């Protein structure tokens, strides 16, 4: 407690020097906003709160979503090697993480920073005094910010398990309010069940209040909230497969449709297509460009997330030429760099993000219909409807000219769906979370093959399924407890 009071005392001393600044970066997560008078409002005009919401959306263009999301979902799986030369990525790829890993600490900061900004919008939009801001628009803004907060928490709970649940920002600081303020600034970890319950509540609010359509797929819509809620119910324990089907159906019946050709998703001629549900949009200007695309493709330096031998074998074993060619491109890198996993003359890069020169207008699709169709297939199969699951799997396979699945039992269909999701969604950030959700991560990862079909040698254990709490956060917050064996 002595350390706690020292921190808060320092904060109290600092506040008078910032009285003219409304927004404060209150460590550890920026979950604070200072207003000089308790009767004041954070936002006075419609323009101010709209700008604040735009600022929350802009976080989809930070390093987490441009790069780390794909490192965490793909390089942490059997689909990609870390590539490049970043030791922090090597630790993630090899399941040798420790609490000082720089990616772990920055991802915590990114996610909780966005959560803090969303909190300010959620908790203050309804009291904006500007009469030009309608009650309906207030609910829409709150719903959009709730969707974003839910997505950030969904990332956090999958990465760390039990994780702090911050829903309020600090607006006034005083010694009398210390018992109330401290848990907001330095919270303990909440059980993951509570985190999932809050995610579900946020998404239910979003579904009830956001628009059905927006100017493009980079904004929260009812379809995006339904899709995310389906994925949440598939991940939260105990699984609620009837809810997964319910929300998948809401998406499927919500006006989305598969593009006729798989490569149309990636040729950059069909942005915000009928298949896309939530898509990060970039203009390709000096102030709005996707620098992340250059991290995965190019000959100027060794890139991140290099396709694995195990994934290429999976494509070849299935004779899945269309999705393989759309997802992977092989180039000659002779004289540029070497790699123990691939020959220089036939070196693979991910091929879904093809505009990689700066400033890049390359969009990222985070949620799309094929993902939801296969998720519904998984839910139907778990409910015993193998035939219904097969129909959905075959719908996905037919687009890429593959024959119907031969799986006819529930166990066989589980593996068929796992394989189909892998090939359909490669390099879209889903594989690691799919394997964790189905309880297959340890078996699959430790069985991955490397060059020439030899075992790659991963050694994933149960403790490696969640990340360590960053040491920098433990040092600042006595209430945080580290995950086991870190």
Which features characterize this protein?
single chain, 486 residues, mainly alpha, Serine Threonine Protein Phosphatase 5, Tetratricopeptide repeat, two-stranded antiparallel ribbon, 18 helices, globular
Could you please describe the fold and organization of this structure?
- Helix 6 packs antiparallel against helix 8, helix 9 packs antiparallel against helix 10 and helix 10 runs antiparallel to helix 13.
- The strands form four sheets. The protein has a two-stranded antiparallel sheet with strand order 1-5. It has a two-stranded antiparallel sheet with strand order 2-3.
- The chain has a domain of 210 residues: Alpha Horseshoe (Serine Threonine Protein Phosphatase 5, Tetratricopeptide repeat).
- Helices cover 47% and strands 6% of the residues.
- The chain is mainly alpha-helical.
CATH topology of the domain at 1-210: Serine Threonine Protein Phosphatase 5, Tetratricopeptide repeat
Q: What's the CATH class label of the domain at 1-210?
A: Mainly Alpha
Unreliable residue stretches = 9-29
Overall pLDDT confidence: 93
Structural class assignment: mainly alpha
Total beta strand runs: 8
Rg calc: 23 Å
CATH architecture of the domain at 1-210: Alpha Horseshoe
Helix content percent band: 40-55%
Question: Biggest sheet: strands side by side, in what order?
Answer: 1-5
- Give the helices and strands as they follow along the chain: HHHEHHHEHEHHHEEHHEEEHHHHHH
Number of helices: 18
Main sheet attributes: strand count, strand direction, barrel closure = 2 strands, antiparallel
Shape: globular
The proportion of residues in beta strands is: 5-15%
């Amino acid at each position: 407690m002595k350390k706690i009071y020292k921190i808060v005392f320092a904060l109290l001393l600092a506040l008078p020097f910032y009285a003219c600044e409304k927004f404060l970066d209150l460590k550890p997560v920026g979950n604070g906003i200072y207003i000089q008078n308790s009767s004041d409002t954070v936002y006075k005009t419609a323009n101010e709160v709209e700008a604040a919401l735009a600022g929350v959306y802009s976080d989809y263009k930070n390093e987490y979503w441009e790069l780390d999301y794909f490192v965490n979902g793909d390089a942490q799986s059997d689909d990609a090697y870390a590539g490049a030369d970043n030791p922090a990525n090597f630790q993630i790829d090899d399941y040798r993480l420790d609490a000082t890993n720089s990616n772990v600490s920055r991802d915590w900061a990114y996610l909780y920073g966005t959560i803090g900004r969303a909190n300010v919008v959620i908790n203050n939009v309804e009291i904006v005094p500007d009469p030009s801001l309608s009650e309906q628009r207030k609910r829409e803004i709150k719903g959009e910010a709730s969707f974003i907060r839910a997505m950030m928490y969904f990332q956090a709970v999958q990465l760390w398990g039990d994780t702090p649940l911050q829903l309020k920002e600090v607006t006034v600081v005083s010694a009398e309010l210390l018992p109330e303020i401290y848990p907001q600034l330095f919270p303990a970890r909440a059980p993951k069940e509570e985190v999932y319950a809050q995610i579900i509540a946020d998404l239910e609010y979003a579904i009830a209040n956001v628009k059905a359509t927006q100017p493009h797929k980079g904004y929260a819509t009812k379809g995006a909230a339904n899709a995310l809620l389906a994925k949440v119910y598939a991940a939260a324990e105990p699984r609620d497969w009837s809810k997964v089907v319910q929300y998948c159906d809401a998406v499927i019946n919500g006006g989305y449709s598969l593009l006729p050709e798989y490569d149309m998703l990636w040729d950059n001629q069909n942005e915000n297509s009928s298949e896309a549900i939530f898509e990060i949009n970039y203009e390709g200007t000096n102030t709005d460009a996707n620098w992340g695309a250059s991290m995965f493709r190019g000959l100027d330096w060794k890139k991140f997330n290099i396709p694995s031998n195990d994934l290429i074998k999976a494509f070849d074993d299935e004779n899945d030429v269309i999705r393989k060619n759309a997802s992977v491109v092989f180039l000659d890198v002779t004289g540029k760099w070497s790699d123990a996993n691939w020959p220089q003359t036939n070196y693979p890069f991910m091929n879904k993000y093809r505009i990689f020169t700066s400033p890049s207008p390359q969009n990222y699709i985070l949620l799309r219909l094929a993902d939801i169709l296969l998720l519904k297939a998984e839910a139907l199969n778990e409910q015993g409807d193998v035939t219904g699951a097969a129909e959905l799997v075959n719908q996905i396979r037919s687009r890429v000219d593959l024959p119907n699945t031969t799986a006819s039992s529930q166990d066989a269909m589980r593996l068929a769906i796992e394989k189909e999701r892998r090939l359909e969604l490669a390099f879209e950030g889903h594989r690691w979370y799919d394997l964790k959700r189905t309880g297959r991560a340890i078996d699959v990862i430790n069985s991955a093959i490397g060059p020439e079909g030899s075992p790659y040698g991963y050694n994933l254990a149960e403790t490696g399924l969640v990340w360590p709490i960053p040491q920098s956060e433990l040092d600042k917050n006595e209430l945080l407890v580290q995950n086991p064996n870190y």
